[in-house]
Amino acid sequence: MNQKLHPSTVAVIAGRGTKQPGAPTSLPVNLSSTFHPGGERIYGRHGNPNWSALEDVLGALEGGRALVYSSGMGAISAVLELLPVGSGVVMPFDAYYGTRKFVHEAAEHGRLSYKEVDVSETTSVLEACAAAELLWLETPTNPLMNVADIAVLAKGAHQRGVQVAVDSTFATPLLQQPLDLGADIVVHSVTKYISGHSDVLLGAVVTRDEQTFDELLELRSLYGAIAGPMESWLALRGLRTLPLRLERAQANAGELARRLDTHPVVSRVRYPGLPDDPGHEVAARQMDGFGAMVCFEVSNAEVADRITGALEVVVDATSLGGLETTIDRRSKYPGEEAVPEGLLRLNVGVEFVEDLWADLRRALDATS
Ligand SMILES: Cc1ncc(COP(=O)(O)O)c(C=O)c1O
């Protein structure tokens, strides 16, 4: 197609297969484990039409070739497993807990070494790259909402011979295109906004580098931790409405961030859409919107727990990216020692914003 399409159109029309007479416009779930020889695929561990459809859409949105995995961690570990033994990784001190744990364990076994950085401090990130093979970015970070300047970091890392991978889960493929900004690899926890209904676990890797793609594809078939066709079908169905869901969730998030920022019980709000947020300037430059994650701090863990316990519309649960607004005190989990004890991570959903605010304000007021 010659026409340049907006991502919200791509999310709807890509991955629908060939326009042959009688062919379905919406791909059904293909549960076959084996296929007649001579076609695109012969065995279900190597490929499946439902993965391909989801991969086509994710690849089109990110501007590369996508591979889907059985979870976000499946995608992350696949990328990290590509590194030769002894490689150095520079990564956020506040990266997703599972990513950090994976690298820490690999370091304990002598497979990798690592250095943790604050991704918003560009100069020190690049200094740390002097002894590394991979710069792992996550932006915004989960849960501290730090923002990395992907374009500047990718350029500086490449000058030092370092590859760059970006976990873009919070931004989604609609709000940030790391490959266009110079990154080599993008990963997503498809479990979150892309699937969007809190009913699927999946992950994805996208790259433009043919060699990286081929290596990942081969390892995926060998390791066998593949996505299920049903999950892929559900994720693609969810992805079709990502533009609509995100538009509403992001508008809600901006409104709630502004209101939380003025509430006396709240000592700090992190949302890149707030003009005085430390990540605002970079996020405004590299993102097409500020997303639907808002983190705010109250004085301590006990106050935070009283708030989560008093909420009736907002659900006290981990994970994010579903239709429903969820809240989570991250410091209660082992491995989240860098997170302030009174920090609440709010994943803003698509409910009517005044209902969300009334619920939050009542819970906050009750603690003052
Ligand atoms: C930023 C980020 N990356 C990766 C993951 C891991 O994804 P999954 O739970 O699908 O394995 C998560 C999960 O919370 C996440 O928040």
Annotated CATH topology of the largest domain: Aspartate Aminotransferase, domain 2
Which radius of gyration do the C-alpha atoms yield? 21 Å
Number of domains: 2
Strand order of the largest sheet: 1-7-6-5-4-2-3
Terminal Cα span? 58 Å
Topology order in helix (H) and strand (E) letters: HHEHEHEHEHEHEEHHHEHEHEEEH
Unreliable spans: none
Please state roughly what percent of the residues sit in beta strands, choosing from under 5%, 5-15%, 15-25%, 25-35%, 35-45% or over 45%. Answer: 15-25%
Bound molecules: pyridoxal-5'-phosphate
Q: What is the C-level CATH assignment of the largest domain?
A: Alpha Beta
Q: Count up the helices.
A: 13
Oligomerization category of the chains in this entry? single chain
Overall shape:
globular
Overview of the molecule:
- This protein has 368 residues and is of the alpha/beta class.
- The chain folds into 2 domains: 7-240, Type I PLP-dependent aspartate aminotransferase-like (Major domain) (Aspartate Aminotransferase, domain 2); 242-365, Aspartate Aminotransferase, domain 1 (Alpha-Beta Complex), CATH 3.90.1150.10.
- It is built from 13 helices and 12 strands.
- It has helices at residues 7-13, 49-62, 72-81, 97-108, 122-128, 150-159, 172-175, 210-223, 229-240, 242-261, 280-286, 301-310, 353-365; strands spanning 65-69, 87-92, 112-117, 134-138, 163-167, 185-189, 203-207, 268-270, 293-297, 315-316, 326-329, 343-347.
- The chain has a 7-stranded mixed beta sheet, with helices on both faces. Strands 8-9-12-11-10 form a 5-stranded mixed beta sheet, covered by helices on one side.
- Strand 4, helix 6 (150-159) and strand 5 form a beta-alpha-beta unit.
- Helix 3 (72-81) packs parallel to helix 4 and helix 12 (301-310) crosses helix 13 (353-365).
- The longest helix has 20 residues, at 242-261.
- The termini are far apart.
- The mean pLDDT is 97.
- Pyridoxal-5'-phosphate (PLP) is lined by residues 71-73, 96, 98, 138, 142, 167, 169, 189, 191, 201, 203.
